[in-house]
Design brief:
The complex is a heterodimer.
Chain A lengths: L5 H8 L1 E5 L3 H12 L5 E6 L36 E4 L3 E5 L4 E4 L4 E3 L2 E4 L3 E3 L5 H4 L4 E3 L3 H12 L5 E4 L3 H12 L4 E5 L6 H18 L3 E4 L3 E6 L5 E6 L4 E3 L2 E4 L3 E3 L11 E2 L2 E3 L5 E3 L5 E7 L4 E5 L5 E5 L2 H15 L14 E6 L2 E7 L6 E8 L4 E8 L2 E8 L5 H9 L21 E2 L14 E4 L15
Parallel strand pairs in A: 1-2, 1-7, 2-3, 7-21, 9-16, 10-11, 10-16, 11-12, 19-22
Antiparallel strand pairs in A: 4-5, 5-6, 8-17, 13-14, 14-15, 18-19, 20-21, 22-23, 23-30, 24-25, 25-28, 26-27, 26-29, 27-28
Chain B lengths: L4 H6 L8 H8 L3 E3 L5 E3 L2 H8 L4 E2 L34 H10 L15 H13 L7 E2 H6 L1 H11 L6 H14 L8 H28 L5 H6 L10 H32 L1 H9 L4 H11 L6 E6 L3 E3 L2 E3 L4 E4 L1 H4 L34 H18 E2 L2 E2 L19 E3 L2 E2 L2
Parallel strand pairs in B: 2-8
Antiparallel strand pairs in B: 1-2, 3-5, 4-11, 5-8, 6-7, 9-12, 10-11
Helix pairs in contact in B: 5-7, 5-15, 7-8, 7-11, 8-9, 9-11, 11-13, 11-15, 12-15, 13-15
Classes of the chains: A alpha/beta, B alpha+beta.
Chain lengths: ~475, ~400
């Protein structure tokens, strides 16, 4: 597009294909139309449903307060698209600019947005994963099926993995009065994302709410009865948990396999792209017609040393989608970078958890307000003398202040007094992130080198 | 010599339209006149400070040298401890949390919504009783009695006591009005007596509710046994007084400012008459355009803090001029235009941060009902005086009277 009117022509009659019909895909499509893209728009999604919202799936739906079928995302405007739902994309021909679908069809594009997101990591032993009563939770159908099973009143639920999703599921089960065991390979729940100091609070919360929490153990086998229903789990400490529902909550896998061999810089860590959401090819050269947004994208963030961050955050999906859409139909000089400060939230055991920045980059934590003992506090994470992240347990209204500290690379520890500073917060302590060489269930933020073809995972908690 | 901006804000002569002064003020986002408060008038700075944990709402952190023309005289003499509006965490959080249990989600998600029928009945009754359509004082006859009646029902004040309650509320509201011309001793004594009487009345009511609880908020507060333990009687009294004062004085002005704004824009009033659902965006835009709380004067700094290159010293008095931030052209396009179709409307009208308006869901619902019903039932309504006479108060700003006329009242 070199100022010869071709961009104008593209905006008028070009073809945009969006692969991935979830939050990022939908918001991108809306933005394209909002900004005047009048050409053809095709939305490809592997699920048969129109775009829906996921946060309620592990909370309200499991409590029976909302129906999984009624979580459709509100449409902010009409997108006037051709919808190809229920059929996954199966391949990409970058040279011919065509997306191949699993049913053999091919869809040509002038510009492509990839927002295929992630899927739940399955239980690794296939035969055991097939047992009746073994679930993962990622999709609307997963949630509906699990909610039905919880409604039936199982004797005990086993949750494998105490990350955010696993912990939310355990919380919902306890609220329903179900007996719950949680098995976590790490030293505490949420430890990968928030470290051991905060993880210890999460562990207390679980135990106070009657969860049978077992940390530092792995589930080694699931056992079924003669009719193929799960009945027990073997743990690495030699114990057995009798259970009739197992929820495998071991993190997510990025949906990039369909891009294998395409030449695009996509792999298990996501699709590498520049700060404007343009995807790299495997040679490290940025494409000009392929963009990525949402959980599957992996962008360099100037605020965090230009490290490539891939974030499974709702707000990130929305903002990245909007930026990708804007850039897809703009002159190169009008493109805008994705500079959102990462933020996520969770709700479990009656506590509202919110975070800004990248806590898992931090090495130290200071409890600047409230107290760990009350499970109501604000923790600030420090990395090499600067504020890098913050987490709030029932203290979310203060977070904009801490976000400003992160944005302005304020010194750590913060030197000023705050309201409600207590004995916990007199000095920073080791945030106690797990040794990166010992795998836990996947951290929320994964960090890596610059080459997307380099598939080594490097978790870098600075020391 | 021109009057200082601070005096111009306080000067009653500017009450009907303080916005040109705010525009002046925004040229210096951190405005400081010798010895007075630090006045913050720009949107982004106000929003930051509302979330800043170095800012305290507790008057005890104010340096004795900080002079503030709005400092409430002799407040300490009142028998009641400060309500949670004037406390910092953790005391603030505990009291607000406990007060919220019978009021809002997650424990009482339907409390406010469940009052719809009652709100509708009260509004209808008041409009039915407006009398001579040729001359209505909307403040006296409608926007004042409405929220007081609502707060009585919410707290569980028996109907036969509502009249007495109205009188105390009136006196106390007037005492918040720092009228430089009124005799402070006289005013202080009236307020003190009203506070005493109201306190004794509430104490009796609380005692009664402890033994004989109903569904009202006071009963639930008096008998609460949550994780935070019970409220002491003193805490209950100061909380009830806070709900009473903050819960209606603001809504009176929001409703009155709202009707004034609509009467100045008959096209919008007509749209509301045709579609009562427009009340929702109208009330949001009103909270931006004519917020009843113009400024928050009750903040102080726990440390030296820098705002836009100015160091505000520890213990200084801060004024956050919400109404000015709401008209900051850096944040809102064409900010002096009342536009109910505005999409991006993150106004400061209800504050932000931990002290953001506790009663917001109720205030919104009350005002939506009030404006849509007035629009529907008043035939050809018009202002008899523009601008109407304003209260002295620069903080809780609104007309003292709003004389209007209409051709008749629809059933």
């Amino acid at each position: 597009m070199i100022g010869d009117g071709s961009l104008e022509r593209f905006r008028r009659e070009g073809r945009i294909v969006v692969v991935g019909a979830s939050l990022a895909g939908l918001r991108a499509a809306e933005t394209l139309r909002d900004k005047g893209f009048a050409g053809s728009l095709t939305m490809i999604g592997d699920e048969p449903h129109e775009p829906y919202d996921r946060p309620p799936l592990s909370k309200q739906v499991l409590l029976g307060k909302a129906a999984a079928e009624r979580t459709a995302l509100p449409r902010l405007r009409s997108v006037d698209a051709t919808w190809r739902l229920g059929v996954p994309a199966a391949g990409l021909d970058m040279a011919a600019r065509r997306v191949r679908l699993a049913d053999g069809d091919e869809v040509p594009y002038d510009r492509l947005l990839i927002a295929t997101g992630v899927r739940a990591h399955p239980w690794p032993r296939e035969a055991e994963a097939q047992l009746d009563g073994v679930f993962v939770l990622r999709t609307r159908d997963d949630s509906a099926a699990l909610a039905r099973r919880l409604e039936a009143g199982p004797k005990r639920v086993l949750v494998i993995g105490a990350g955010f999703t696993g912990s939310e599921i355990a919380s919902a089960c306890r609220e329903r009065g179900l007996a719950v065991t949680v098995a976590e390979r790490g030293a505490a729940p949420l430890v990968g994302a928030l470290g051991g100091v905060v993880g210890a609070v999460a562990a207390e919360m679980q135990r106070e709410h009657g969860v049978d929490l077992r940390c530092g153990v792995m589930v080694t086998a699931l056992e079924g009865d003669a009719s193929g229903r799960v009945r027990a789990a073997q743990l690495s400490d030699g114990s057995t948990v009798e259970t009739d529902v197992v929820i495998v909550s071991l993190g997510a896998t990025r949906n990039t396999e369909w891009l294998a061999g395409s030449g695009l810089g996509a792999g298990p860590r996501g699709i590498a792209c520049d700060a404007g959401c343009r995807a790299f090819d495997i040679r490290g050269i940025v494409t000009d017609d392929i963009y990525a947004a949402g959980d599957v994208a992996r962008c360099p963030h100037p605020l965090f040393g230009y490290q490539f961050l891939s974030l499974e955050h709702w707000g990130n999906a929305v903002s990245q989608a909007r930026i990708a859409a804007h850039n897809m139909i703009s002159e190169s000089t009008d493109r805008i970078p994705h500079m959102e400060v990462p933020a996520f939230w969770s709700s479990q055991f009656g506590v509202n958890i919110k975070s800004v920045g990248v806590p898992s980059l931090g090495t130290e934590i200071l409890i600047s307000q409230g107290s760990l003992k009350d499970h109501r506090f604000l923790g600030v994470y420090g990395y090499q003398g600067r504020v890098i992240g913050a987490v709030a347990f029932d203290h979310a209204r203060w977070l904009p202040f801490y976000q400003e500290l992160i944005e302005t690379t304020a010194p750590f520890p913060p030197s000023f007094p705050t309201v409600d500073r207590r004995s916990d917060g007199q000095r920073p302590i080791d945030a106690d992130f797990p040794d990166p060489s010992v795998p836990t269930h996947g951290p929320t933020v994964t960090l890596g080198g610059y080459s997307p073809a380099d598939r080594r995972m490097t978790f870098t908690p600075a020391h | 010599m021109t009057q200082s901006l601070l005096h111009q804000i306080l000067d009653h002569a500017n009450r009907a339209n303080p916005y040109p002064i705010y525009e002046q003020l925004r040229k210096t986002p951190v405005h400081h006149e010798d010895g007075g408060p630090y006045v913050i008038s720009t949107y982004y700075e106000i929003r930051s400070l509302l979330h800043d944990p170095r800012i305290s709402s507790d008057a005890r952190n104010l340096a004795s040298t900080a002079r503030d023309p709005l400092a409430e005289p002799a407040r300490e003499e009142s028998a009641l401890p400060p309500g949670f509006l004037r406390l910092d965490p953790p005391e603030h959080d505990r009291l607000r949390r406990m007060t919220n249990r019978p009021f809002g989600p997650p424990h009482s998600p339907h409390r406010v919504d469940g009052m719809r029928g009652e709100l509708h009945d009260i509004v209808s009754g008041l409009i039915d009783g407006l009398g001579d359509p040729g001359r209505i004082d909307l403040v006296e006859q409608f926007s004042y009695p409405f929220p007081v009646t609502v707060i009585c029902r919410l707290l569980g004040v028996p109907r036969e006591d509502e009249a007495r309650f109205h009188t105390w509320a009136d006196t106390l509201a007037a005492s918040l009005d720092p009228d430089p011309d009124a005799d402070p001793t006289e005013r202080g004594k009236g307020a003190h007596d009203a506070r005493m009487e109201l306190g004794m009345y509430l104490a009796g009511l609380i005692e009664e509710r402890r033994t004989n609880p109903g569904e009202d908020m006071l009963s639930q507060l008096a008998t609460a046994k949550g994780e935070d333990g019970p409220m002491t009687t003193m805490e209950l009294l100061s909380t009830a007084a806070l709900l009473l004062i903050a819960g209606h004085e603001t809504t009176v002005n929001l409703i009155t400012n709202g009707m004034l704004t609509l009467l100045r824009r008959p096209d919008v009033l007509e749209r509301l008459r045709a579609d009562p659902r427009l009340a929702v965006p109208i009330v949001e835009e009103l909270l931006r355009f004519e917020p009843p709380v113009q400024l928050v004067p009750q903040r102080t700094t726990l440390a030296d803090i820098e705002v836009r290159g100015v160091t505000i010293p520890k213990g200084a008095s801060l004024w956050l001029v919400l109404a000015s931030g709401n008209r900051d052209p850096q944040r809102f396009e064409d900010p002096d235009r009342f536009d109910p179709d505005r999409r991006d409307i993150q106004h400061l009208g209800l504050g932000s941060g931990i002290h953001s308006c506790f009663g917001a869901p109720l205030a919104r619902l009350e005002t939506q009902f009030a404006l849509s019903e007035l629009a529907r039932r008043l035939e050809n309504p018009r202002l008899l005086e523009d601008p109407p006479p304003y209260r002295q108060n620069a903080v809780l700003r609104g007309p003292r009277h709003l004389p209007i006329a209409c051709d008749g009242i629809r059933p």
